[in-house]
Inverse folding.
C-alpha cells in the first residue's frame, strides 16, 4: 500500500468488537488488537461456576463465586471450558477479520473513487490547458496581424504625408511668385 493509504488506514477510528457488551472505545486500527486483547468489556465465563461476566468484572466475581473454592475441577469440565474459550476466540477472530475486510473494502472503494476523481480532474485540466494554448496561439496571430496592419498603415500615412508635404512645398514657390506678382501689380498701379 502507498504510504498515505497506510496512514489513512492506521488513523481510521474503529469501534471495539465488544461494543455490544458495553465498550464505547473507538481506537485507531493499528492499536485495535492491543485494546481488544485487554478490553474490560470482553465477555468471559467463570471457570468455576460458568457464569457469564466481563473481563473487568471477573476479579470481583471470583471473590464472591461460591464454586471458586472447589478443590478439583473435573477434566471434562476443563476440556469443555477450553473448547468453549477456543470457539469463542475463533468466533471473535472471524468477526474481527470480517469487519476488517469490510473496512478495507470500504477504504479501497473510497480510494478508487478518489483516484477516478483525480484522473477526471487531470483530464479536465489538460483539456483546459490545451484550449488555453490554442487561444494563446490565435491571440498571438491576431497581434502579429494587427502589428503588420499598423506598420503598413503607418507607412502609408507617412507616404501620404510626404506627398502632401511635397505638394505644399511645390506650391509654396508658386504662391510666392503670385504674391510678388501681386505686389508688382499693386506697385505699378500706384505709379
Amino acid at each position: 500500500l502507498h504510504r498515505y493509504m497506510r496512514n489513512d488506514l492506521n488513523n481510521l477510528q474503529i469501534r471495539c468488537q465488544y461494543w455490544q457488551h458495553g465498550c464505547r472505545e473507538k481506537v485507531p486500527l493499528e492499536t485495535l488488537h492491543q485494546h481488544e486483547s485487554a478490553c474490560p468489556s470482553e465477555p468471559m465465563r467463570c471457570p468455576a461456576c460458568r457464569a457469564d461476566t466481563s473481563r473487568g468484572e471477573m476479579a470481583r466475581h471470583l471473590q464472591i463465586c461460591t464454586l471458586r473454592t472447589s478443590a478439583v475441577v473435573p477434566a471434562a469440565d476443563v476440556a469443555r471450558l477450553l473448547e468453549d474459550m477456543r470457539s469463542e476466540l475463533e468466533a471473535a477472530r472471524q468477526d474481527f477479520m470480517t469487519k476488517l475486510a469490510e473496512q478495507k473494502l470500504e477504504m479501497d472503494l473510497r480510494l478508487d473513487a478518489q483516484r477516478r476523481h483525480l484522473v477526471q480532474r487531470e483530464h479536465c485540466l489538460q483539456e483546459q490547458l490545451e484550449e488555453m494554448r490554442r487561444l494563446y496561439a490565435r491571440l498571438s496571430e491576431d497581434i502579429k496581424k494587427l502589428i503588420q496592419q499598423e506598420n503598413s498603415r503607418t507607412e502609408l500615412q507617412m507616404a501620404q504625408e510626404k506627398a502632401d508635404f511635397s505638394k505644399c512645398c511645390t506650391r509654396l514657390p508658386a504662391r510666392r511668385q503670385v504674391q510678388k506678382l501681386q505686389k508688382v501689380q499693386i506697385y505699378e498701379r500706384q505709379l
Remarks:
- The first helix runs from residue 3 to 11.
- Residues 47 and 81 are 7 Å apart (CA to CA).
- The two ends are 121 Å apart (CA to CA).
